[in-house]
Amino acid sequence: MHLTRLNIERVRNLTTVVLPSLQPFNIFYGENGSGKTSVLEAIHLLATGRSFRTHIPKYYVQHTQTDAIIFAQASQNKIGLQKFSSGEQYIKVNGDTVATQGQLAKILPLQHIDPLSTDIIDHGAKARRQLLDWLMFHVEPEFYDTWQLYARSLKQRNTLLKTKQKLTLEQLEPWNKLLAEYGEILHLQRMSILEQWKPFFEAELKALLPDLTVHLEYQAGFHVDHGLLNDLNHHHQKDLQRRYTEYGPHKADLRLKTLMGDADVVFSRGQKKLLIIALKLSQIAMLHASNRETVVLLDDLTAELDLTAQHRLIKRLSQLGSQVFLTTLDRNAVEKHLKDLTISYKLFHVTSGHVQAVEE
How many domains does the chain divide into? Predict the structure, then answer.
């Protein structure tokens, strides 16, 4: 879904922003602190219900205000989100109130690419699981329901582990069976999607890091040869001591392996950034292959990528049919890339929370 119009109210220093006639590429330039990234943050909130800068709503709802509103329009859908500083939210799709953020996320597949960040590689398994599960959510129809059933079973089991000092295996058995059933299904779904994802990743990696080889290796979070139920039964005493379920898909990881070792150890900072871009581009490419286009938030493009990498990334996003919202301090460099590639774009100047379209 490509957005044609975006309205933002009371997100950080953005009091009222109205952006009509959006294009395939939308460029926001201005000084640091002007509000450029807050525009991207608002779009991220709309699509996911979360900020990529903080998990506390009162920090992105404008100071002294109780709520923020983001509304977007596309050719076939109108979607809106009202987010309160308390954390409550209301979501509407085409005028109808919907119950879950997942319904918006399905309509608006969104990727955030931050050239400054290497978190996916450097900061533990959670970010890599989230990367894989984003793809799962958008290409595996049964994933979301299965994950919800697994998450509920996990919550119930963990509650028992925390509140009961003495639990027999028989008392845990119903939850062990449910957790194992849904966990094994999740594992098979992830393995299937990973195999489909690999050729897309290899193609994007070859374009960005042609001299390097990286393998995606999925670690299930339990001993696959014995099965999840066996792990839950066998280790229930340790879980009781930890008061937490140690084995299952919630502990899975997506390792990035090279011939010399894990990418987080052997790659330079610059290589890690290009590797993350290759991962995200390959997911966008996989959705594009099934006729689904992705909205991409590209924060501070010119900060750490050289001109060749900037040009290659912009060109590839255009080829994949993505709609891009891009921030930069260097308007001229970005405009040159877009003009050289004959890509349609709209330019917005951001100053002190005000966003003004620049007429060419």
Answer: 2
Which range marks the domain in which residue 30 is found? 1-109+293-360
Of 290, 325, 345, the position where a domain reaches its end is: 290
Q: What is the CATH number of the domain that holds 15?
A: 3.40.50.300
CA angle, 13 as apex, 7 and 14 as ends, to 5°? 15
Please write down the HEC assignment for all residues of the chain.
Answer: CCEEEEEEEEECCEEEEEECCCCCEEEEECCCCCCHHHHHHHHHHHHHCCCCCCCCHHHCECCCCCEEEEEEEECCCEEEEEEECCCCEEEEECCEEECCHHHHHHHCCEEEECCCCCHHHHCCHHHHHHHHHHHHHHHCCCHHHHHHHHHHHHHHHHHHHHHCCCCCHHHHHHHHHHHHHHHHHHHHHHHHHHHHHHHHHHHHHHHHCCCCCCEEEEECCCCCCCCHHHHHHHCHHHHHHHCCCCCCHHHCEEEEEECCEEHHHHCCHHHHHHHHHHHHHHHHHHHHHCCCCCEEEECCCCCCCCHHHHHHHHHHHHHCCCEEEEEECCHHHHHHHHHHCCCCEEEEEEECCEEEEECC
Above 80 in pLDDT, residue 360? no
For 209-255, the pLDDT digits (tens) are 898 899 999 999 999 999 999 999 999 899 999 999 999 999 999 99
In this structure, are 152 and 259 located in the same domain? yes
The pTM of the full predicted model, rounded to 2 decimals, is 0.92
Last residue of a domain, one of 270, 290, 310: 290
Read off the pLDDT of residues 146-188 as tens digits, 9 standing for 90 and up: 999 999 999 999 999 998 778 888 888 999 999 999 999 999 9
Give me 247's structure tokens: 């084995």
- How far is 340 from 338, CA to CA, in rounded Å? 5
